Amino acid sequence: MNRPEPRPVPASPVDRCGAVLEAAAAVILGKEHELRLALTCLLARGHLLIEDLPGVGKTTLAHLLARLLGLDYARIQFTSDLLPADVIGVAVYDRASESFRFHPGPVFSQLVLADEINRATPKAQSALLEAMEERQVTVEGETRALPEPFFVIATQNPLHQIGTFPLPESQLDRFLMRIELGYPAAHQEKRLLAGEDRRALVARQAPVLVPAELAALQELVVAVHAAPAVIDYVHDLLAFTRASGRFAYGLSPRAGLGLVRAAKAWALLGGRDYVLPEDVQAVLPACCAHRLVGSGEGAVLDACRVDAEILAHVPVP
Amino acid sequence: MATERAHWPEPVPDRLQRLWLTLLVIAGALPLLPRLDWRIGAFASALFALRLLALRWHGVQPGRWLLVLLTLVGIANCLHVYGSLSGRQGGAALFLTMLALKLLELHARRDLQIAAILLGFLVVVQFLFDQSLGLALYLALVVGAMLTLLADINATTGGGRLRPALTTTTRLALQALPLTLVLFLLFPRLSAPLWDLGLDAEQARTGFSDTMEPGAVSELVVNGELAFRVRFDATPPPPDQRYWRGLVLWQTDGRRWTVGEPPRTGPASLALAAAADRLDYEVVLEPTDRRWLFALDLPVAAEGVVLAPDHLLRASRAVESALRYRVRSVLDARTPAPSAALRDYALRLPAGTITPRMRALVASWRGEGADDQTVVRRALAYFNREAFHYTLLPPPLGPNPVDTFLFETRRGFCEHYASSFATLMRLAGIPSRVVLGYLGSEPNAIGGYHMVWQSDAHAWVEVLLPGRGWVRVDPTAAVDPSRIDNQSASRLLGAGNPVRFELAQDAWLARLARGARQFADSIDAAWQQWVLDFSAEDQLGLLQRLGLGGLGEYGLAVLMVVTFSLTLGAVLLGLVRAPREPDPLVARHARFCRRLARIGLAPHPGEGPQDHGRRVIAARPDLAAPVSRFLALYLPARFGPAPDPRTVARLDALLRGFRPRRRR
Q: What is the pLDDT of residue A260?
């Protein structure tokens, strides 16, 4: 009972992604779609922002992904007194070697969970966000590459915004996706309550993929074919957000690039080597909602509104 | 407003666009200039020149106050010349002046657009003066160039390139073509010409006057315009029998002949003594602004026009647009003897112009009690024998032209001969009258009809002989038979006056020139028949052929609205559908969706093909097999990296058997 059952290992890494999702779904109940999006985001070399209330499994999700994908994992709890050095690391004088030795911070992990990122000051936030974008850190004039793969899951608490530093739209753009977990459905929540401790469950998970395989999968994502019709569709979607007047400003080209990359990863998870319009549609809310501000409103959109606001108005190829 | 303008300055038209617009306006105004007074043309030309100069040297560009002054001068010029700023000529003059002025203030793109559109109006105005095919083609060219320029002016990106602008123009023209046809065929026609709508028609055409005075016909002879066209139902009569009667002149004062007021007793003498072979034909008369019509000697019946006394044809009102009528003529007709009053009227001599030598001449013919016929023969022989010359440039005649011509100058043309001959006949006691009309006709081999030119105008005499009625006598023919036989050479050379050289009838140049003229006229005739003459009656005929005759005039409006809407709809549909690329796979999928739409399973807006297929299968599990087969073929072919070229054929095969039906 304590030992994990040996899982039959599927042949190809793509098939093993299915196994990753299966295993994850056994721990985080009723969140298959969100898990799939999170994995998609990882395969597309993007970073993930989870915006939700405390206690819905954000940390569990991050930890679980790290376990299943065989990544080393670090967690940074963002607070208002967090300093950039706490994220990046610090050079300490070493008496033995009579030189400064760099102590890498938590950012030098393959999967970093940045918990409650909006609690920290913009200075600390930007230290992480720059690392996310550049995939390298410069300390004491020396540039250090971050590990590969490098994946940041940041969480943000939408409530209790007093005394927080919410990420501005430009910083939100750094995240490929933003997802919400939300409460589980009733029967699944009952299963959760009746079941084992999640932390122990996560600790028991054996890696399904090795990092080399993950890197290979990320290469495969790039090779997924996006037909001209799909590119046209993506462009139509971007153009619609810019021209329809429903949004304060439209999607950036970076958002478009991310959308295509995420759709490719989604297609790969679906076992296809080409992108369907449905792949674009599946990732669009997660990829775009946090980059759009409804015209006349001050805040970014709900993911569920994206479908109604955009997808229904742009003809599908 | 001002700040907006500062942010988004209107693009300043470049020099080339302004130059082109100026040249186009000049080209468009060119045909109008000769129709207006020279002072209007001179003012407009000066403005054009100023515009062109200002394009080269900016210093020449007149300032605001000078422009105001020029405008006032232009208006004053129009008022001075025509006395009014309205009416056909005054309005056209004002329009031309204002357009030329507008060219001097092409500051912004908007000015160019306005000037280009005004040029369009200038083009329309010209059709109030002339509706010939040549002008229409020329102005169509101008309009085409104007639209191309407009497309270039309005080009959002760049501009200055001919090709995209031409493409736009061509596409617009093609889209407008069906609408133009619908409007042309179905727009309700006014049965009255435009002239009746208050436009002035002071410009009388050169044509016949109802008087004859030696010298008047000379102008006609040198007029190179077409008088009318004739289409014979059967064989045309020989050339020397083609006398087209138009007017009968009864009265003379010794100098001029007029219609006079012949006594009318009883109904017109239509009874014919002997009817030889009949001749049926159709005439299309060019506008004359007169009521009289022309028919072969001697018309006995006519359709659409009035057969007046003296066997003359009359239109019900002045012929202001081309008139088509059918006539039946009899060549060797004998008219019955007229009443005694008419006979006496035809014997009236002008007082004071009869000289003793005229009396002596007539007496010499009448000697030994010769009968009327002999007198006529002797008179003709006299003209033939004596040194009479036929010339278009007769010397001026004195106060008694008949006497001077007969005994002194002896040079003249048909009017001189007809006038003298008729006077002499009356002196001899033979009733006579002068007939004005045309002689001869030129067959047009291409159009299959005959052309009668203004230069064919002629005058001859009719004498009343006992037992034979009115008999045609052509004294000019007695003098110079070539007047009848050699009919073309002088006319061919632009009716030169005097004729400088003669071309042999068969010279290749003459044949070529004749052929070219016939060809040009046949095109003109077709233009006349099919475009300009397309009338309200033709429209009703068209309706009847379409089986909508019962609708009457409402039918026309209904048909126009319906056709117009349909055409407009088709054009719009074409516009909406145009950007869609003709991908065969997309077409197959569209067909697939249409089939499913019949059972209420069309894709939702924003629904992808795969999601749609899944929804269909969920709703209709019985369709699972064909739908998944279709998608399994379609999706990789459309979105996959290496589409299979056989997919289209396979999809077609699948679609042939795919006809889903609603479940009960």
A: 93
Cα distance between residue A32 and residue A185, in whole Å: 12
- In a 3-state reduction of DSSP, which class is residue A5? coil
Q: Do A313 and B638 touch (CB under 8 A)?
A: no
B450 is an active site residue: no
Residue of A nearest to B585 (CA): A317
| Domain residue ranges of chain B, discontinuous segments joined by + | 2-160, 211-508, 584-656
Active-site residue, from B311, B416, B450, B458: B458
Q: Using a CB-CB distance cutoff of 8 angstroms, which residues of chain B are in contact with residue A274?
A: 636, 639-641
pLDDT at B265: 57
Mutant choice from A274, A281, A310 vs B, greatest count of B C-beta within 10 A: A274
| Domain A13-212 classification at class level | alpha beta
B369 with B465: CB under 8 angstroms? no
pLDDT at B7: 39
The reported pLDDT for the residue numbered B298 is 81
Residues A72, A67: Cα–Cα separation, whole Å: 8
Q: Both tokens of residue A40?
A: 């998609």
pTM, two decimals, is: 0.46
Q: Tell me what pLDDT residue B111 has.
A: 87
Beta bridge partners of A159: none
For chain A, the structural domain boundaries read 13-212, 224-313
Q: Which residues of chain A have pLDDT under 50?
A: 1-10
How many residues are given for chain B? 664
Q: Which of residues 591-620 of B touch A (CB under 8 A)?
A: 603-611
Q: How far apart are CA B332 and CA B507, in angstroms?
A: 36
A residues 288..307 contacting B (CB < 8 A): 307
Residue of A nearest to B641 (CA): A225
CA A303 – CA A290 distance, rounded (Å): 8
Query: What is the three-class DSSP state of A30?
Result: coil
CB B120 within 8 A of CB B114: no
Q: Which residues contact B138 (CB under 8 A, 6 or more apart)?
A: B31
Radius of gyration of chain A (CA): 20
Architecture of the domain spanning A224-313: Orthogonal Bundle (1.10)
**Token pair for residue B240?**
């020397």
SS3 at position A113? strand
Amino acid identity for residue B412 in this structure: G
DSSP-assigned letters across all residues of B451-498: EEEGGGEEEEEEEEETTTEEEEE-HHHHH-THHHHS-SHHHHTTS-SS
Is the backbone peptide bond immediately before B237 cis, with ω within 30 degrees of 0? no
Under 8 Å CB-to-CB from B336, ≥6 apart: which residues? B269, B271, B273, B469
Is residue B474 among the annotated active site residues?
yes
**CA separation, residue B104 to residues B20, B28, B50, B326 (Å):** 14, 17, 8, 54
* Interface predicted TM-score (ipTM) of this complex, two decimals: 0.82
Residue carrying structure tokens 């209790």: A160
What is the Cα–Cα distance from B448 to A288, expressed in whole angstroms?
Answer: 77
Q: What one-letter code names the amino acid at A172?
A: L
B418/B210 Cα distance (integer angstroms): 15
B175 vs B171: CA distance, rounded Å: 6
For B92, B513, B514, B517, the CA distances from B493, given in Å and listed in that order, are 34, 9, 10, 11
Closest among B610, B451, B597, B598 to B519, alpha carbons compared: B451
- Cα–Cα nearest to B349, from B265, B420, B439, B246: B420
**Parallel, antiparallel, or unpaired for β A73-77 and A111-115?**
parallel
Residue B69 or residue B300, greater confidence: B69
Beta carbons of B240 and B291 less than 8 angstroms apart: no
Question: Measured between CA atoms, how close is A307 to chain B, in angstroms?
Answer: 9
- Whether residue A222 lies within 8 A of chain B, CB to CB, comes out as no
Instruction: Region of A253 please: left (phi>0), alpha (psi -120 to 50) or beta.
Output: alpha
